[in-house]
């Protein structure tokens, strides 16, 4: 038997053909990551600053909630039509338009402080954000070799994750020190810089003759099952971001911030790891463990007054959520032709946004009746209930 050699010549002589793994990084992918870094930074810089700006203008808590609600409402609405825009106008024009709509209106914040004007700007930025994120995931699948798609999605997750980890607290800090207008200008320039980068990207459109709409994608079981499973974990993420700071007020002051940061970092790292693992072993086998880890992390928060339980729960949930993010979308991309990448991205992002919103809204009602420990327990149970569609999808596959 021939021993495995390190050169192609010897391997050929032994009758063994070993092809090297295709390169994952290219000039186009690097430029694309730069553009998305600008868009994500713009979004996260202003995500918490705009509600603060509305409150400072006298809008109160209701007004602050309206700004985020308008942003996400427009995002969900635009995600329904984004695949059609990609099919008609191509990736480059659609992504550039999304980044412009995300960035340019932010300048208006600096000159309009009334609540109706702020909400109107949030609606426009929500349209741009939806188009940007749908193009983003779809372009990763289009630009990365299929054999390394999971790792490419993991690298994309790092770009977005680093943006959130850095830009979210940075926006609040800059607003506190220098006022709101500089943050608005920074957010605008970040997205517009991303749009300028897109102009250098040679991108086209997927084959329109095979493209399907979002509603058709939601009626397709092989796409619906992974998105439902992922939406359950996203629901828990919405609960944590909204309510963990309120639930740990009796503990040390910095526990909530440290726990959320730990969860974000863990999620980003495991999203990348899941991509590398999925490329070698298949992403389908990761979906069930991701649900178990996410649910266990939420169940640990029953002991919300114990810092060790909180940090341990965040480690488990961060790992599970990161794996669920990568595995679910990688599975969905594997099940469609390239013309369906836009649809997959839209369905996946809808699952994310819907989960975040529904989780926060329902948890608030439940927690007022049961208290935080029981509400976290019930959230964990709901997440674990997603094992049903996850197991069914595994059997069907």
Shape descriptor: globular
Top CATH class of the largest domain: Mainly Alpha
Distance between the termini: 36 Å
- Architecture (CATH level 2) name of the largest domain: Up-down Bundle
Q: pLDDT average, as an integer?
A: 85
Class based on secondary structure composition and strand pairing: mainly alpha
Major sheet description: none
Number of strands: 0
Name the beta content range. under 5%
- What percent of the residues sit in helical stretches (DSSP H or I)? over 70%
Taken together, the total number of domains comes to 2
Overall description:
- The protein is mainly α and 397 residues long.
- The protein has helices spanning 8-13, 27-47, 49-56, 60-79, 82-89, 91-103, 106-109, 115-143, 149-178, 180-198, 214-218, 221-247, 255-281, 287-300, 307-334, 341-370, 372-385, 387-396.
- Helix 2 (27-47) runs antiparallel to helix 8, helix 2 (27-47) packs parallel to helix 9 and helix 14 packs antiparallel against helix 15 (307-334).
- The protein is globular, with a radius of gyration of 22 Å.
């Amino acid at each position: 038997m021939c021993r495995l050699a390190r050169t192609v010549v010897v391997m050929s002589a032994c009758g063994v053909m070993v092809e090297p793994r295709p390169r994952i990084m290219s000039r186009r992918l690097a430029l694309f990551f730069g553009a998305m870094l600008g868009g994500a930074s713009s979004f996260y810089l202003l995500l918490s600053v705009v509600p603060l700006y509305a409150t400072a203008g006298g809008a109160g808590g209701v007004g602050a909630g309206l700004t985020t609600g308008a942003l996400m409402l427009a995002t969900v609405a635009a995600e329904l039509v984004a695949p059609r825009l990609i099919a008609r106008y191509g990736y480059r024009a659609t992504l550039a338009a999304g980044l412009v709509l995300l960035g340019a209106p932010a300048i208006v914040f600096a000159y309009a402080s009334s609540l109706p004007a702020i909400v109107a700007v949030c609606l426009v930025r929500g349209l741009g954000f939806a188009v940007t994120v749908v193009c983003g995931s779809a372009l990763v699948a289009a630009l990365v070799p299929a054999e390394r798609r999971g790792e490419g999605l993991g690298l994309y997750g790092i770009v977005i994750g680093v943006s959130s980890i850095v830009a979210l607290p940075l926006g609040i800090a800059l607003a506190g020190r220098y006022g709101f207008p500089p943050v608005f200008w920074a957010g605008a320039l970040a997205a517009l810089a991303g749009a300028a980068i897109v102009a250098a990207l040679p991108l086209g459109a997927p084959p329109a003759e095979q493209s399907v709409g979002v509603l058709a994608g939601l009626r397709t079981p092989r796409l619906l099952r992974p998105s439902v499973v992922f939406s359950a974990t996203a629901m828990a993420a919405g609960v944590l971001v909204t309510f963990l700071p309120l639930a740990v007020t009796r503990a040390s002051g910095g526990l909530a911030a440290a726990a959320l940061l730990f969860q974000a970092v863990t999620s980003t790292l495991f999203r990348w790891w899941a991509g590398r693992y999925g490329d070698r072993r298949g992403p389908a086998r990761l979906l069930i463990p991701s649900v178990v880890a996410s649910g266990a992390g939420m169940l640990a928060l029953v002991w919300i007054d114990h810092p060790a339980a909180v940090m341990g729960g965040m480690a488990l949930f961060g790992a599970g959520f990161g794996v669920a993010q990568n595995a679910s979308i990688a599975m969905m991309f594997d099940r469609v032709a390239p013309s369906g990448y836009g649809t997959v991205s839209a369905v996946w992002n809808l699952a994310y946004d819907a989960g975040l919103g529904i989780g926060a809204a329902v948890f608030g009602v439940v927690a007022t009746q049961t208290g935080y420990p029981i509400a976290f327990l019930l959230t964990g149970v709901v997440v674990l209930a997603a094992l049903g569609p996850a197991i069914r999808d595994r059997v069907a596959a």
